[in-house]
Amino acid sequence: MNIKFLNLGKQPLANQYPSFANKRQKKYNLNICFNTKTKIISISKKMKSEVMFNKKYPYRSSMSKTMKESFKKLSKEIIKRFNPNLTLEIGSNDGALITNFGKKKAIGIEPCSNLAYMTKKKGFKTYNKYWNFDLAKKIRARHGLIDLIYSANTITHISNLNDVFKSINYLLKNEGTLIIEDPSLLECIKKNAYDQFYNEHIYIFSAISLRKILKKHNMQIFDIQTLDTHGGSLRYFIKKNKNKEVKISDKVFKQLSTEFKFGLNKLSTYKKFSSNVKKSKNQLISLIQKIKNQKKIIVGYGATAKAVTVINYCKINNKLIDFFVDTTPEKQNKLLPGTDIKIYKYSKKLLSNVNYIFLGAWNFKDEIFKKEENFIKRKGKFLTHIPKPKII
Ligand code: DWN
Question: What was the pLDDT predicted at 143?
Answer without folding.
Answer: 98
